[in-house]
Amino acid sequence: MITSHPNTTIAIKGHAKELNCTARGERPIIIRWEKGDTVIDPDRVMRYAIATKDNGDEVVSTLKLKPADRGDSVFFSCHAINSYGEDRGLIQLTVQEPPDPPELEIREVKARSMNLRWTQRFDGNSIITGFDIEYKNKSDSWDFKQSTRNISPTINQANIVDLHPASVYSIRMYSFNKIGRSEPSKELTISTEEAAPDGPPMDVTLQPVTSQSIQVTWKAPKKELQNGVIRGYQIGYRENSPGSNGQYSIVEMKATGDSEVYTLDNLKKFAQYGVVVQAFNRAGTGPSSSEINATTLEDVPSQPPENVRALSITSDVAVISWSEPPRSTLNGVLKGYRVIFWSLYVDGEWGAMQNVTTARERVELRGMEKFTNYSVQVLAYTQAGDGVRSSVLYIQTKEDGECVPPAPAWPRTARQLPGPVPGTALEPPRCSRKERGPPAGIKAVPSSASSVVVSWLPPTKPNGVIRKYTIFCFSPGSGQPAPSEYETSPEQLFYRIAHLNRGQQYLLWVAAVTSAGRGNGSEKVTIEPAGKVHVFLAPGGPPLPQAAFCSSAAPPDLTSSPKPIAPALPSEERNLHSLRPNL
């Protein structure tokens, strides 16, 4: 009969294990081992060995498993057989080993985390004590793995966090029991979703291009901070000048590469702008770069000076004043002002355009032509050039001031009017031809044996309102010390002088008179009366009036008696400048 055998026993997979069975009875005793219902034949299954020995009145049989295997976790039986019968002893062997790896599945993947779940299959005939999860970038080796260890055996799911967006990971898992760690689970590959970039664009620079544009350049964010494929950029810009609202205007552009360029245009002239740049991908927009500033280039002022005024001070001096254009329209650093002016003559011609530059808001224009119409404009200018001119302002210089005509060409005598010696301190200012325009186009023709007719045109530069004309008649060979003088109205441009001596030459010239005094004399013409001379008049013209007497006697006292005034002709005869002899 079987006297000794274990009921249950444990073996470790891969290790050797011995099962002993002891029988007592009539000899001979045969002991046979069975695994389940199968007789163990060591000759056929080399992993098993059976050894039997006598031990006094007992027979001991030993079954060796070399080594134990998972399949040995069954009932083994030993059978003792003699001539009297058979006895059997059952032994339950449990082979323990590290567990099988869990079956891993991915339930959810986000940009920075993933959710896992697993199922534990064979536990190795030992209670599971925990789990380990390992993961890495797919391109790395497992030497650079990250782990989540000692997960409770009661848990069958976990969240892995702190992953990097838009990355590819490999993940595997282990189970543990008291025997050891399982083999790794099947390796899974997952891709995290994109997330908004974690870094701003790099190396942002600004370059003013024109008065209304700035070029922005930058580089893509650092690769590890892009969190996906950079799709484009948002450029924010705002005016940082006083009074601006501080809000960014946003423009968007598609990404083209690692380096980008964008030109902001339609900006305000000579204004400071702050600019930031943000990258975006499919998941969103990343942080902005630090704001940097640039100022658009200067331009010319877009508005003229304001409140432009012109004041005539004298006959050749005018004062022009104005105020600064609005600061917002200067478009640069104001360098100064330019006053542009030119004369307008009665014949419609323009004088040369002149300009004066000043840093003040007032300027005196000197050396202007007397009693002349002028057009005046004012502009402001910056480094970029001249701005918009003001509207044309019209001004007329005043009539000429007191002056005396040049001294006559004859010798000074006691009969002449008293006056200071030329060149002394008491000499009044004299009018140059430039200052006082003489009558133009003087002509004279004989009208009879004792009379002549002289005609002229108004001065081109009268320097004032002509009040009258003075006609001078002088006979050099008569011994007359000074010319005779005659006056006529400003509308009459001719004069008849009678009672002349036939065959005697006379010098004639004319001067215009304004409220400021007598101007320069015209050119002198020489004439002598002639017999049987007929004056040609326009058809239907009236007869000439009786003229004044040009005497060879001493001239009248000009300081005490009035000058003779010729009677005015009818208006039809005021064009007698065309008089000529009818030979």
TrEMBL record:
Name of a matching Pfam family: I-set
Protein name, entry field: Down syndrome cell adhesion molecule-like protein 1
Positions of the Fibronectin type-III domain: 98-195, 200-299, 304-400, 438-532
Keyword Disulfide bond among record annotations: yes
Signal peptide: none
Source organism, top-level taxon: Eukaryota
Chain segments annotated as transmembrane: none
Residue intervals of the Ig-like domain: 1-96
Ranges where the record places region Disordered: 411-443, 552-583
Source organism per UniProt: Eschrichtius robustus
PANTHER family: DS CELL ADHESION MOLECULE LIKE 1 (PTHR44170:SF53), PROTEIN SIDEKICK (PTHR44170)
